[in-house]
């Protein structure tokens, strides 16, 4: 008697991303998972949606999934704070429409939730904590023989939760750039490492015992730099998503490789001020002979009491010295601050801004504090008496209304009216930023015209 053949499992890989018009058609996270599935011959149907587009409708996602699914199809979706509101509707509608396969959920909203996953997502069958590339692959490879394969980082609804995070061998992951999943276009996001060596209490990039920092093998990084700098490359704007670029074993090698290939676009580097070393600034200066390096500096606040609340101590003496050196070397930088911090007042927020201006910073971004699920600050919100926005209170905040993203809008040290003052100041900063950035971009174009002249000597160039 012939044994019935088990149908090959098929996966729909859905991305609900927050995308800018300059972004590639597929995100870096989605493309990394997809590249690994393709390399291992998994039957996968990917689809990306931009939740921030006015035309986006959760019903369209549900309909696409239902129309392209059969009894052998599972669906995997990444859960992020910006898509939580839409995701909940999609998950509920999939169950109402009797989606025949299993629903798999990963992403930061899952990875940093240490308990009660089913409470947040009762519609979901399979949860993946940690890096999804290997866990999702192993799950799909074993589906034909085991409905609930034992895979590190996977939790099945209704079973005991061991709260384990998936691990990935970064040396074995294929590059989505070299595999042509991400096109060679003007703007790309790029990574050389994941995770962060610090433990800021508001951040989901923080290290933990189960989700630690990993670096890509430098041979892969070097090949990707060749792809970025190849003849007739379209890449003119390179945004490194490494949470702390100037950490780990490879960051100087990355800069030196970009220098060697004479990269000539803009490159943005998320940089920790206190960790800046002389050789790092020297490499940036050399790269600036052909490119424009922008250091993105997360200062958050200058006040010790506020730093303590968010586990973000800063050596202000060294920071002052670093600002002076960055200015002396004519290196572009942008500083980010947070408003709505525990212990903050309107005056202390303004003092952080004034400090930046006094230290030669031309571009300052101020972002409202969000309590991200799974972070220590999220767990301490009641103790610290942090009040979050909701759709019935903060009508003027688009991100609350459209995406359901909550912000801290009052605490024992600032009222909602105080918070609105800080939000207005943050908006005024962006108006000032735009004026400077417009002139900076014009100067950069002039800079490129100079260095591209025949017989130009780099050693004679002075930055405009």
Furnish the topology, listing elements before pairings.
Layout: E1 10-17, H1 28-39, E2 44-50, H2 58-67, E3 73-78, H3 84-96, E4 103-106, H4 108-111, H5 117-120, E5 126-128, H6 132-142, E6 154-156, E7 187-190, E8 193-194, E9 214-215, H7 218-229, E10 237-240, H8 251-260, E11 266-271, H9 278-287, E12 292-300, H10 304-309, H11 316-328, E13 332-339, H12 346-358, E14 363-368, H13 376-379, E15 387-388, H14 398-403, E16 408-410, H15 416-451
Helix pairs in contact: 1-6, 2-3, 7-8, 8-9
Briefly characterize the structure.
35% of the residues lie in helices and 17% in strands. The chain is built from 15 helices and 16 strands.
What does the model show?
With 464 residues, this protein is an alpha/beta fold. 35% of the residues lie in helices and 17% in strands. It contains 15 helices and 16 strands. The strands form 4 sheets. Strands 2-1-3-4-5-6 form a 6-stranded mixed beta sheet. Strands 7-10-11-12-13-14 form a 6-stranded parallel beta sheet. Helix 1 packs parallel to helix 6 (132-142) and helix 8 (251-260) packs parallel to helix 9 (278-287). The model is unreliable at 1-5, 207-211 and 456-464 (pLDDT under 50).
List keywords for this structure.
alpha/beta, six-stranded mixed sheet, disordered N terminus, 464 residues, six-stranded parallel sheet
Give me the side-by-side strand order of the main sheet.
2-1-3-4-5-6
What percent of residues adopt helix (DSSP H or I)? Answer: 25-40%
Task: Provide the β-strand percentage band.
Answer: 15-25%
In angstroms, what is the radius of gyration? Answer: 24 Å
Give the helix tally: 15
Largest sheet: 6 strands, mixed
Number of strands: 16
